[in-house]
DNA sequence: CCCCTTCATGTTACATGTAATATCATTATT
DNA sequence: AATAATGATATTACATGTAACATGAAGGGG
């Protein structure tokens, strides 16, 4: 008999709860600082406390919530500071991701990247900020996937999740988005040519721009407080 | 009254169990593939199953164990492949760590790094391989700490833990260790001079050497299998 | 001899019970 | 009025119960 695809394991409640809470946090329904009370979530989701507790602890491991022992878990608050920390790391791990991607991607992968960029260009043309962010995330996720390093992929996903909590604090102008999509296109060109050095350098510079804007924003905010 | 440091929270059983299992895995008492049966560990450690289950799931999040839904958790097996994956990432995140360290360390920090190197030199002189690995880990951990980026520090610790499981698969000769400690000294020199560019480049090259050795080892192992 | 069924055993996943503890509104005290 | 003591309420951390499920050995049929 020809091999059937393996059955997906019966969805466990804990996974469903984790997914639901994660969505709630990333969409803003559960805002930063919101307590994640195990008994209350159990009542609300109509399951027992065990899978809730496990899911909540998962979120802590994901960096999407923080635990104060004996005082419970709350949705993580991601300050500008944290977003800067995250971009310091992204500057390097996304650069690695781009390099590995250039070495390991296939033609289908390149096509997928080009299609994401096409969607993103439409968002820029229509001045659709939300769509831009979404396709931006898809672009970086795809590059992480094609770099064929599962731990690297996990790190990128973890940073992306935390970033989304803090993202409302970061402004972006249409002109920046216009340049962003151009940079993406250049990165894909380098990847297609298998030029790992260039893909790495372009990606690093791409992220560094945002990092520097963040550092500047923080410097200004600090200045206002000090003054 | 002057502020006393906050009391450490009464040690929770779950934390004690997590620590104990982590030590067991890193020391090799719990070898790769070893099942982590919740009821059995509960009997052995004389506590109920709840804190055991939480601790075991923590280990999964740490990358030190792997879960097969409905089939339990076993200690992670770190193949040469995985060690290579980890070094691909370390090449970049350790380079970042060295750069940030150069920008942010203080005089006490530099003194600590020099003292670690001094200990490491003794290990090399006495051909003490275990001591070399331990001081090596201490060196990279300290640099991670002085880079003052908590998420970066967490990533480095996570990779280090997984590496230690797989480390027995990696050989190291006295000559390599001799060069390693020299490279460490050069990195600290760059850090002391606040030369972030140079610290980053030296660290990247330092890790890349190990990465390339690993890739070579894997290529040879594959060749033998194919032949 | 190989394959399938059956059954015994042990585990996971979830549910629920409860003591110790944290929080907070209210009252009592200076 | 500000601070401290009190008590009501809710939560965490841990313990324990149990149905569904996985595993592996023993037995039966091809």
Summarize the structure.
Two copies of one chain form a homodimer. With 227 residues, chain A is mainly alpha-helical.
Shape-level CATH architecture of the largest domain in chain A: Up-down Bundle
How is the quaternary structure best described? homodimer
Q: Which pair has the most extensive contact?
A: A-B, 28 and 28 residues
Tell me the total number of β-strands of chain A.
2
The number of helical segments of chain A is 9
Pfam family, one (chains A, B): FCD
InterPro entries (chains A, B): GntR_C, TF_FadR/GntR_C, Tscrpt_reg_HTH_GntR, WH-like_DNA-bd_sf, WH_DNA-bd_sf
GO molecular function, one term (chains A, B): DNA binding
Keywords (chains A, B): DNA-binding, Transcription, Transcription regulation
Describe this structure in words.
The structure is a homodimer of 227-residue chains. With 227 residues, chain A is mainly alpha-helical. Chain A folds into two domains: 13-75, Winged helix-like DNA-binding domain superfamily/Winged helix DNA-binding domain (Arc Repressor Mutant, subunit A, Orthogonal Bundle), CATH 1.10.10; 80-226, Four Helix Bundle (Hemerythrin (Met), subunit A). Chain A has helices spanning 13-27, 38-45, 49-62, 80-104, 107-125, 129-146, 150-166, 174-192, 196-226, and strands at residues 65-68, 72-75. In chain A, a hairpin with a 3-residue loop joins strand 1 and strand 2 (72-75). In chain A, helix 4 (80-104) packs across helix 6 (129-146) and helix 4 (80-104) runs antiparallel to helix 7. Chain A is globular, with a radius of gyration of 20 Å. The model of chain A has no long low-confidence stretch (mean pLDDT 93). Chain A binds chain B through residues 9-10, 12, 53-54, 57-58, 61, 63, 69-70, 85-86, 88-89, 91-93, 95-96, 100, 149-152, 155, 159, 162, and chain B through 9-10, 12, 53-54, 57-58, 61, 63, 69-70, 85-86, 88-89, 91-93, 95-96, 100, 149-152, 155, 159, 162. Chain A binds a DNA duplex (30 and 30 nucleotides) through residues 10, 12-14, 37-40, 47-51, 53-54, 69-72. Chains A, B: This is HTH gntR-type domain-containing protein. Chains A, B: Residues 11-78 form the HTH gntR-type domain.
């Amino acid at each position: 008999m020809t091999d059937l695809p393996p059955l997906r394991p019966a969805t466990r409640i804990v996974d469903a709860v984790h997914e639901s809470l994660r969505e709630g946090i990333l969409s803003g329904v559960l805002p930063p600082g919101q307590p994640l009370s195990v008994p209350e979530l159990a009542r609300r989701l109509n399951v027992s406390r065990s899978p809730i507790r496990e899911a909540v602890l998962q979120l802590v491991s994901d960096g999407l919530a923080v635990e104060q022992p004996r005082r419970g878990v709350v949705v993580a608050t991601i300050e500008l500071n944290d977003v800067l920390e995250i971009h310091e790391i992204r500057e390097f791990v996304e650069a690695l991701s781009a390099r590995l991607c250039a070495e390991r991607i296939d033609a289908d992968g390149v096509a997928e990247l080009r299609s994401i960029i096409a969607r993103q260009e439409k968002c820029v043309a229509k001045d659709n900020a939300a769509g831009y962010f979404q396709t931006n995330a898809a672009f970086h996720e795809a590059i992480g996937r094609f770099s064929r390093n599962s731990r690297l992929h996990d790190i990128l996903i973890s940073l992306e999740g935390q970033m989304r909590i803090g993202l409302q604090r970061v402004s972006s102008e249409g002109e920046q988005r216009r340049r962003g999509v151009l940079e993406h296109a250049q990165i894909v060109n380098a990847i297609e040519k298998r030029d790992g050095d260039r893909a790495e350098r372009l990606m690093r510079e791409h992220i560094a721009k945002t990092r520097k804007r963040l550092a500047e924003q923080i410097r200004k905010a600090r200045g206002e407080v000090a003054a």
